[in-house]
Each structure stands twice: as structure tokens, then as C-alpha cells.
Specification:
This protein is mostly helical and about 350 residues long. It is about 70% helix and about 5% strand. The protein has 14 helices and four strands. The strands form two sheets. Strands 1-4 form a two-stranded antiparallel sheet. Helix 3 crosses helix 9. The longest helix is centred in the last third of the chain and has 29 residues.
């Protein structure tokens, strides 16, 4: 007599495939994506200009330079650090480029290379000081913020007699550099700034590095626990210094876009923007404690900024409401991010 067929054993829940909801909540950017959809729908309803091609070009441009910085800051925050000098660094690099080009007669391309080296040097110094001294990056980069602010004002006033440098349009090499960093392209009969392309490209590269490379794993590891990472062979110092240099590079890119687009720069420019970069990264899914976040989410956080800022203008509301919006979005993002992280940790167990 044949052996009776036995019922198949129950699947081990530890190796069962997670459901769609569980797969979504482990993505840090899901909260910011939902927020972006809500903001988009809201301003699409309350104002007609928002969905026009000109309106889209405006709020994408508004978000682009903020997005470049927010993506870089998100990588640093995932690595467990902050950079309060990021905002003023955008002005510092623009001033270096402008002073060398307009006051010393250098070719714009050579001035851009020098300003890039300056930015990377400051970023490396910030990272080295954080790692060698053990001081919080908040304190170290606050010192860099004050130092750069003083240098910007002091050197600009010493060289030009004012707090502004202008005249970039007549410098040697401006046309070709401006084409790369500050030109426009036409889409649907509307002009869009090339900074939008830089924003998308920077986001793609940062996201690819973060989720598909060994260095991306190192970033998450050092942000989660530097001591544990070092114990398993992760080069903690090198990783964190590189992250500070990445933030400095992004500041150079934004500073270059600004100086070549507007052809002038104020010495006190960029002050306060560092908080917007951090807020955009937090809205995008980054935790203030490190080890969790998304480059794509930070880009979406910047997009929310751009849509809200321009949407308020199109709706003819007082711009003061934008500060209320930022406060509400920041608190909401922190609560959502913490909830998503806790659920993601349960899903991964």
C-alpha cells in the first residue's frame, strides 16, 4: 500500500517573502514621496500657475541648488555627522572664483579649479578635526562657519572695498563656463536652467554609490556605530573625511552655478542655508542620529521646498507662511522617519 501523501510543511516565516507594504516601509524616502504628492496636489488645486510649464520650471529651479546640497548633506548625516559650514561655503567658493577672475584677471576655468581645491581642503580639514579630536561635528563645523564668514567679509572688503564682487560676465572663459553651469535648455517651449540637470545627475550618482557600492555600506555602517564598524575593518576616518569633502564639493558646485548665473556674489550670502539643507535631508528620511536615510529622499525633500515656496507665491499668500510650513514639515518628518525606522527594523529581523 502506498504511503499516504503528507501535507507540505509550513513555510518558515523567517524566509518568507515580505509583503508590498513591508517592502515599502524599509525605504526611507517613502514618507517624503507621499508628502511631495500631497504638496503637489494641493498647490495644483489652489493655483493655476503651479502646473503651467513656466511654473514647473520655476519650482524645479528653486529646488535644484537646494537639492544638490541636500543630497550631499544626507550622505553626511547617514554617516552620523553634520556640516554647519555648508551654506557659507557656497558663498566662499563663489567669492574665490569671482575674486581670482575679476580682480586678478585669471581665466574662469583656472579660478574654478582653485576654488574647488579650496573647498575640498576645508572639507578634508573639517573631517580630520572631527576624527582626530573626537569633538562633535556640530562644534567643529560651527567654528568653520564662523571662520569662513569672517574670511568672506574681510577679504572681500579688503580687495574690493565693498562686500560684493561683480563683473564676471566680462572675464576670460566666462562663456564656456557659463554654458556648463548656468545655461538654459528649452523643453515644451519653456526655458529650464541646467542646474536642474546637475541636481538630477548628482542625485543619481549619490544614490548609486549609497545603495550599490561597498563605500555606501561603509556610510551606513559608520553612521550606525563607528566603533563596531572599525572592529570589522571599515575605514571610519577615511569614510567620514570623504563625506565632508563630498559636502564641500557640492557647495563648490552650487557656488559655481550661482556666480556664473548671477555674475555677482555678496560676502554674506549663504548664511542660514545650512539649516534648509538639513531640513530637506530630514524631510527626505534621514535621522539626526545617523545610519538611516536616502539620497533620493533628500532630493524629494528639496523638491517639496521648491514646490511649497513657489506655490505660496503663486497663491498670493504672505511668505511668512513658508516658515510655518517648514516647522510643520520638519516635526512631521522626524515622527514619520522614526516610525518607519522602527518598522523597517522589525521587517529585517
Amino acid at each position: 500500500m502506498s504511503v499516504a501523501a503528507q501535507a507540505p510543511p509550513a513555510a518558515d516565516e523567517r524566509i518568507s517573502k515580505p509583503g508590498l507594504l513591508d517592502r515599502l516601509v524599509v525605504r526611507p524616502e517613502i514618507g517624503s514621496l507621499l508628502g511631495a504628492v500631497l504638496v503637489f496636489l494641493f498647490f495644483s488645486i489652489v493655483t493655476e500657475q503651479f502646473l503651467s510649464t513656466g511654473g514647473v520650471a520655476t519650482w524645479l529651479d528653486d529646488a535644484s541648488t537646494l537639492g544638490i546640497m541636500a543630497v550631499a548633506v544626507s550622505l553626511l548625516m547617514i554617516g552620523g555627522e553634520f556640516d554647519l559650514s555648508a551654506g557659507v561655503m557656497t558663498a566662499s567658493t563663489a567669492l574665490v572664483t569671482a575674486i581670482l577672475s575679476t580682480q586678478l584677471g585669471w581665466n574662469v576655468w583656472l579660478a574654478l579649479v582653485v576654488s574647488l581645491l579650496f573647498a575640498l581642503g576645508v572639507g578634508a580639514l573639517n573631517g580630520w578635526l572631527v576624527m582626530r579630536t573626537g569633538l562633535p561635528s556640530f562644534i567643529v563645523t560651527l567654528g568653520s562657519f564662523l571662520a569662513l564668514q569672517g574670511l568672506n567679509l574681510g577679504i572681500t572688503r579688503l580687495v574690493t572695498g565693498t562686500v560684493q564682487v561683480s563683473g564676471m560676465r566680462t572675464t576670460d572663459g566666462y562663456a564656456s563656463a557659463g554654458f556648463l553651469f548656468a545655461s538654459t535648455f528649452s523643453f515644451g517651449g519653456t526655458s529650464f536652467y541646467i542646474s536642474i540637470v546637475w541636481w538630477i545627475l548628482f542625485t543619481v550618482v549619490a544614490s548609486t554609490i549609497l545603495v550599490r557600492t561597498r563605500f555606501g555600506n561603509w556610510i551606513f555602517a559608520v553612521g550606525g556605530s563607528a566603533l563596531s564598524s572599525r572592529a570589522v575593518g571599515v575605514p571610519v576616518m577615511r569614510t567620514k573625511i570623504f563625506l565632508f569633502m563630498t559636502t564641500a564639493f557640492a557647495a563648490w558646485l552650487v557656488g559655481s552655478i550661482n556666480i556664473l548665473r548671477f555674475t555677482s556674489v555678496q560676502a554674506n550670502q549663504g548664511i542660514g542655508l545650512e539649516f534648509q539643507f538639513i531640513i530637506a535631508a530630514v524631510i527626505g528620511g534621514c535621522l539626526l542620529t545617523g545610519g538611516f536615510g536616502s539620497a533620493v529622499g533628500a532630493a524629494i525633500g528639496a523638491l517639496i521646498f521648491g514646490m511649497a515656496r513657489q506655490g505660496i507665491v503663486y497663491a498670493n499668500w504672505n511668505s511668512d507662511w513658508f516658515q510655518l510650513f517648514l516647522g510643520v514639515m520638519l516635526l512631521s518628518a522626524v515622527l514619520v522617519n522614526n516610525a518607519l525606522r522602527r518598522r523597517a527594523e522589525r521587517v529585517r529581523r
